Amino acid sequence: MLIFFSNKPYYAIVNDAVEASKEFKKGALVNAVLRKVLQDKDNIKFGKYIYPEFKKVLDKIFSSKSIREYIYQTLFEKPINYQVSLVDKEDAIYEKRVFLLKKKLKSNCFVQDIGNFEIIRSTKSFYHDSDILDICAAPGGKSILLQSYGFKVSAIDKSQIQINKFYENLRRLNLKINIKKIDFLKEKFLDKYNSILLDAPCSALGTFKRNPDVTTKVDQAQIKKHQKTQIEILEKSLKILKKNGFLIYVVCSFHPFETIDVIDKISQKHNNIKIHSINSEKMIKRKNGYFINPLKFKNTGGSDVFFVSVLEKK
């Protein structure tokens, strides 16, 4: 499936599959099969099949028929890639910052989905001051964008692989952002913050066009595990959030367990949390948060689906 719909190079897809299959001692077989598929890929016919569990969850969130039909129609098309400028440019296709990514990056630009850009653009006005703690920050797109808007970002992440990618982006853009390798749930924090961005780990269901294999992996038990981690991180984030401070919760998923249910559980437990409205015509409100509406970006090639909720600690 990735071979036909992903933007990844073929060799990278084959390599990933071979590495994953080595655990079952099937590396040579998988390598041979995929190389045969590549040889005949132009002659292979396939049906457009949407996995029932994936469709069930998506239909629950997007009640609009036009949105669902747009997603179903474009599910089997290669996604459009975007690049975001560090400065305003008049020839951008959206909000003076977003460009299509063609053969190579423009100067002072970095790769970021247009929906991801919209999340930051529409929530940055909530932050009280210029100092932001970005939790789970790597590979750094949101941190870089926030800094370009004038914020001072302190970034943390526990994955060295993702941190290395963050540093690569910073070197290429000739930027400096303070990033530390920290396991947020294990680290003791003495400082408190007025502004926190939490881009929480999740199932990544919202990236289905870039990673079509996620449509086959709607595992309720696994997603429940994600929810447990998300709530733990949110709970600790609220402890280090100052009174009247703002926390932006983001996931690249549309599963209720990882989105509206998480915020519901937090709101029920903490009576000092206020959920704020977001002013963006590119999003759809669902209970206590907002989902990116990919149909709103139809003319620019669509977008991934993100969920965002703005929490204030009273």
Structure write-up:
With 314 residues, the protein is of the alpha/beta class. Strand 7, helix 9 and strand 8 form a beta-alpha-beta unit. The longest helix is centred in the last third of the chain and has 20 residues, at 220-239. The protein folds into 2 domains: 1-46, no CATH class; 82-313, Vaccinia Virus protein VP39 (Rossmann fold), CATH 3.40.50.150. Helix content is 36%, strand content 20%. The chain has helices at residues 2-5, 10-21, 27-40, 52-61, 65-74, 114-123, 141-148, 160-173, 220-239, 260-269; strands at 82-85, 98-100, 109-111, 131-135, 152-157, 178-181, 193-199, 241-251, 273-276, 283-286, 289-292, 307-313. The chain contains 10 helices and 12 strands.
Structural topology:
Blueprint: H1 2-5, H2 10-21, H3 27-40, H4 52-61, H5 65-74, E1 82-85, E2 98-100, E3 109-111, H6 114-123, E4 131-135, H7 141-148, E5 152-157, H8 160-173, E6 178-181, E7 193-199, H9 220-239, E8 241-251, H10 260-269, E9 273-276, E10 283-286, E11 289-292, E12 307-313
Parallel strand pairs: 4-5, 4-7, 5-6, 7-8
Antiparallel strand pairs: 1-2, 1-3, 8-12, 9-12, 10-11, 11-12
Q: What keywords describe this structure?
A:
314 residues; alpha/beta; globular; 2 domains; Rossmann fold; 9-stranded mixed sheet; 10 helices; 20% strand
- Count of alpha/pi helices: 10
Helix/strand/pairing class, anyone?
alpha/beta
Q: Could you state the CATH homologous superfamily of the largest domain?
A: Vaccinia Virus protein VP39
What is the number of beta strands? 12
Mean pLDDT: 91
Strand content: 15-25%
- Biggest sheet details: 9 strands, mixed
Rg: 20 Å
Low-confidence stretches: none
Instruction: Assign an overall shape.
Output: globular
